[in-house]
Amino acid sequence: MGKNQPEEEWNDDEELDNRDNNDLMGDDFEKNIDNLVKKQIDSKRVKKIDQTKKRATVDSVFDERMYLQISKILKSGILSRIEGIISAGKEANVYLAYGQNNKEYAVKIYKIDTNTSKWMRNYI
After folding, report:
1. DSSP string, 20-62
2. Cα 113 from Cα 110, distance rounded (Å)
3. Which residues pair with 58 in a beta bridge?
4. pTM given for the model
5. Half-sphere exposure of 32 toward its Cβ, with a 13 Å CA cutoff?
6. Strand ordering across the sheet containing 104-110
7. 41-94 pLDDT tens trace
8. Cα 62 to Cα 49: distance, rounded to the nearest angstrom
9. Is the dihedral of CA 77, 83, 88, 90 positive or negative?
10. 77 DSSP assignment
11. What are phi and psi of 43, to 5 degrees?
């Protein structure tokens, strides 16, 4: 207690019991806040994991966006199918593709893998 503040007096046992209950409610409140914070952190982790999966690449060129773009090309009829890699370079991969009447095409897809990009900075 401060010098100018009078000391609290408790005349009634019931009032003292209520004060103890309020202190316990404070602990429960802190636990609830902790649980809410943990839930928010967990939800952010899940979102981050989902984003990581979307950015994952195959052959350093195929991620979710690239699959969608290739799917559009195949559905439009520009190409009928895409086969394996013809050539793999530092900047891009070249794939064998077939169009109408089984005409062969070479499709060049630039790499998007961040590790490859960091490695290439030395050469640019």
Report:
1. HHHHHHHHHHHHHHHHHHHHHHHHHHHHHHHHHHHH--BTTTB
2. 9
3. 62
4. 0.45
5. 6
6. 81-88, 92-98, 104-110
7. 777 666 665 555 555 555 556 677 788 888 898 899 999 988 888 888 878 888
8. 18
9. positive
10. T
11. -65, -35
Q: What's the one-letter identity of residue 17? A: D
Contact 118, 90 (CB under 8 A): no
For residue 8, count CB atoms less than 10 angstroms from its CB and return exposed for 0-12, middle for 13-18, buried for 19 or more: exposed
51/54 Cα distance (integer angstroms) = 5
Confidence of residue 16 (pLDDT cuts 50, 70, 90): very low
Write out the H or E segment, with its range, that includes residue 67.
helix 64-76
Please give the structure tokens belonging to residue 1: 């207690």
